[in-house]
Amino acid sequence: MKKLLIILHDLSAGGAEKMMMRLAAALVDAGNDVTLLLLTGGGPNAAHLDPRVKKVELRSPRTSRAVPALARFLRANRFDAQLAALTHVNVVAIAAAMLSGTLARLHVSERNAFSHDKHVNPDFMVRVAYLVAPLLYRLIPNPVICVSRGVAQDLVDTTIARHRDVTTADNPVLDDNFREKTPGLPSHRWLLEKSGAVIVAVGRLAPQKGFDTLITAFAALPDKGVRLIIFGEGALRVRLLEQALTLGVADRVDLPGYTHDPLAEVAAADCFVLSSRFEGSPNALVEALSTGTPVVATRCPHGPQDILIGGVVAPLVAVDDPIALAQAIAQQLATPRNLQRHERLEAAARFKNASAVQTYLAALLGSQTS
Fold first, then answer.
1. For residue 226, what are the contacts with CB-CB under 8 A and spacing of at least 6?
2. Distance CA 340, CA 207 (A)
3. Residue 6 and residue 22: Cα distance in Å, rounded?
4. Of 73, 77, 84, 292, whose CB neighbour count within 10 A is largest?
5. pLDDT score at 370
6. Cβ distance 199 to 308 under 8 Å?
7. Where are the beta strands (DSSP E) in 99-188?
8. The CATH number of domain 189-349, selected from 3.40.50.2000, 3.90.660.20, 3.90.650.10, 1.20.1440.80
9. What is the pLDDT of residues 243-288, one digit of tens each?
10. Strand duo 54-57 + 81-85: pairing
11. What pLDDT, in 10s, does the model give residues 89-117?
12. Which residues pair with 36 in a beta bridge?
């Protein structure tokens, strides 16, 4: 049994936080002693943390001010491996590991396309973290764990990081028995009592997700009986609703907020669309594939091309091309639902907990896993 530590800022509703929780539970399933340390603490996902995972909250007022407390914790508690996630957390973890003498056991991970993600958060300290992170990535002894080959290549292409400074590990997105699970009932009325085809998308209402392009594409569909549901919250809610009104589709577009069971909603839909401008390894796309529902995705950097095997599993279209997106959606809606269902499930199976956790253990422990 190995003693492992995962370092996060908090357990907010983001995809990285959700994935680190899944990884922690999967590492416990693989026979390890796992602690999840939160630099600040709290967050809506905290209630869903596997009770077998030990939780520590430093309660720092800001992530950037957590270095001394984290250094003390690392000095007092020896772990076989330490894993930090998200760029600003990585920088804090590297500083604390250097102060505590545990840098040899620290691994950091990038969850998104670095060259795009660095422009998203306007916070000054986060911007500073993105400036210094690439230099630190060259200096630390262990390579940065990236969630996809595209994320790794982006880090090399757009920063001073070298190929030897990066490695990859798959996200543990799905339960091992996902094929045998029966999806729950959807909550949305359009999916419970369908009067026509329904398209579903899931994600933050933010520019990264490209929902403005999706709504434009939706308005261009020839079938005016189709409906669109976008599950998620974010700053663009009002703008997206105004766009739907301007395009004359407001009565067929709904933004109901977060859903507690996105798999149930996607499983009941006729098509899932990932319209993102950039990603790391989009977990929502993997989850959609696991339901067997037909999907369409943008060829965004990075992840969809890898997950969909270059378009073999499902259509890939250019980013910010609503006409191409509309054509791909219309094609999927006109195709028998079960065509290529097996291929979709096979593509999702790579991201089962048991499979993915082995790639993480190899990255974290190397020869220690034997």
1. 196, 197, 198, 199, 218, 252, 333
2. 31
3. 11
4. 84
5. 40
6. no
7. 106-110, 144-146, 166-168
8. 3.40.50.2000
9. 999 999 999 999 999 998 999 999 999 999 999 999 989 999 999 9
10. unpaired
11. 999 999 999 999 999 999 999 998 899 98
12. 6, 55
Type of residue at 180: E
Residues with Cβ within 8 Å of 292's Cβ and at least 6 positions away in sequence, in order, are 267, 338, 341, 344, 345
Please say whether the beta carbons of 184 and 264 come within 8 A: yes
For residue 281, what are its two tokens? 């390894």
C-alpha angle 319-86-370 in degrees, rounded to nearest 5: 110
SS3 259: coil
What is the DSSP secondary structure assignment for residue 184, as one 8-state letter?
A: -
pLDDT recorded at residue 368: 56
Q: How are the residues of the chain apportioned to helix, strand and coil, as percentages rounded to the nearest 5?
A: 45, 15, 35
Run of H or E including 85:
strand 81-85
Phi and psi (nearest 5°) for 41?
Answer: 120, 165
**Model confidence over 134-184: pLDDT tens digits?**
999 999 999 999 999 999 999 999 999 999 999 999 999 999 999 999 999
- Domain boundaries, given as residue ranges, for the chain: 3-172+352-369, 189-349
Q: Is 78 exposed, middle or buried (0-12, 13-18, 19+ CB in 10 A)?
A: exposed
Which is nearest to 160 in space by CA: 94, 103, 124, 114? 114
At residue 105, what is the residue type?
A: R
pLDDT in tens, 208-255: 999 999 999 999 999 999 999 999 999 999 999 999 999 999 999 999
Measured CA to CA in angstroms, residue 160 lies from 88, 134, 144, 168, 223 at distances of 17, 6, 13, 18, 49
Q: What is the pTM of this model?
A: 0.86
In which element (H, E) is residue 5 found? Answer: strand 3-8
The domain defined by 3-172+352-369 folds into Rossmann fold (3.40.50)
| Short-list 29, 31, 25, CA closest to 48 | 25
What tokens does 112 get?
A: 């998104």
Check: CB of residue 91 under 8 Å from CB of residue 82: no
Establish whether domains 3-172+352-369 and 189-349 are of one fold. yes
